[in-house]
Design brief:
single chain; 360 residues; alpha+beta; Arc Repressor Mutant, subunit A; three-stranded antiparallel β-sheet; 15 helices
Length: 360
């Protein structure tokens, strides 16, 4: 589990109607961040239970019992995804195993989620896990994802959504939310404050009325942090094309990275490498050059991620030493050395290439 991991989710999954607690959402998004670009199947993801409890923010004496209750309820929750005329009923977790003696819990995502989390090529959103880990409201987290998936609509028009659709997506079904003022104060304003303080985006909003009733909201999305970081966190539209300047730069960077590789890597894999190298093409070229001195590499993307993280260097050749050469070796400019040995240095004196000038 690493807060710098990237969450990749289909926009269709982001806009589904479901109601998960803040803790349940953090479990799913942490699992999503552990999925690797080259994965074709979900794996089993192992957590140390103490770390898992810390992730969920549990502090009372019954925390070990509580964490089992949370995963059990999450496994039983089912939501629906519309695919054309089909309706797919999907669970979040495909398996949970607690190994009490080892102090670990092993989780597996439901296989039906594969089209919405694996090998995504278009209509998906990426962001760093750290953006949502410190959020305190389940609605703030959902709003963050909704805005992130619509980040390309940062112009004057903004992102428009009807109040009823907005509440339905968030799962804000409490009777109190029939009153718009409660939605505004408890959900929107709280999310506005949290996102500005803790994430890479912030927003303003406009209320649109039909008569005297607020029926729609217009969200105006803004960047909080550096443009460099925003390049690593993007929304890809249905056409797979960028729709604002930040995304154009990001797409250009991804294409540059793919051009470095002789191997066929996809955009998501290039995105992972870009994130690891903080968008520095020189680092990527350097580490890729090192890969040519290594034997068969089964997974070039995995190797590159580790090479960047651990800062692999060119191995230095070892010279056998004995009594004669047991001293620090000098570095020479061999082109210059050759000129001097051939007598091309005509400043009036010959030069011993090892000791300096001597008179003719």
């Amino acid at each position: 589990m690493d807060k710098n991991f990237t969450v990749n989710k289909s926009n269709k999954l982001i806009t589904c109607n479901y109601d998960l607690s803040l803790q349940e959402q953090k479990i799913i998004l942490t699992l999503a961040s552990m999925v690797q670009p080259q994965d074709i199947e979900f794996k089993e993801y192992k957590f140390i239970i103490k770390d898992f409890i810390k992730l969920l923010g549990l502090k009372d004496q019954s925390k070990y019992t509580e964490v089992r209750k949370i995963t059990k309820e999450l496994k039983e929750k089912v939501f629906e995804i519309n695919e054309g005329t089909d309706i797919i009923q999907v669970s979040w977790l495909g398996g949970v195993r607690y190994k009490a003696k080892e102090g670990v819990v092993i989780l597996r995502l439901d296989p039906d989620l594969k089209p919405y989390m694996l090998a995504l090529k278009d209509n998906f959103t990426s962001y760093k896990l750290e953006n949502i880990l410190s959020l305190k409201s389940k609605y703030s987290l959902r709003i963050y994802e909704l805005l992130k998936s619509n980040q390309y609509k940062k112009g004057k028009k903004g992102w428009n959504i009807g109040i009823e659709d907005f509440k339905k997506i968030l799962g804000a079904t409490d009777k109190s939310y029939c009153v718009y003022q409660n939605v505004k104060n408890r959900i929107i304003i709280q999310a506005q404050n949290e996102l500005k303080e803790k994430t890479d985006i912030s927003f303003d909003f406009e209320e649109i009325k039909t008569g005297r009733k607020v029926t729609n909201l217009n969200f105006f999305i803004k960047l909080n942090k550096s443009q460099e970081k925003a390049q690593d966190e993007t929304c890809v539209t249905d056409e797979g094309k960028s729709t604002n300047e930040e995304e154009k730069r990001s797409t250009g960077l991804i294409n540059d990275i793919k051009a470095i590789f002789k191997e066929d890597i996809d955009g998501l894999e290039a995105q992972k490498i870009s994130t690891a190298a903080k968008g520095d093409l020189n680092i990527i070229k350097e580490k890729y050059g090192l890969s040519k001195n290594v034997g068969n590499i089964g997974n070039i993307v995995g190797w590159m991620l580790k090479a960047i993280k651990d800062d692999y260097k060119t191995p230095k050749g070892k010279v056998k030493t004995g009594v004669f050469n047991d001293y620090e070796q000098r570095d020479y400019d061999f082109d210059e050395l050759e000129k001097r040995l051939l007598g091309w240095d005509n400043d009036g004196a010959e030069e011993d290439p090892l000791q300096g000038k001597i008179s003719i």
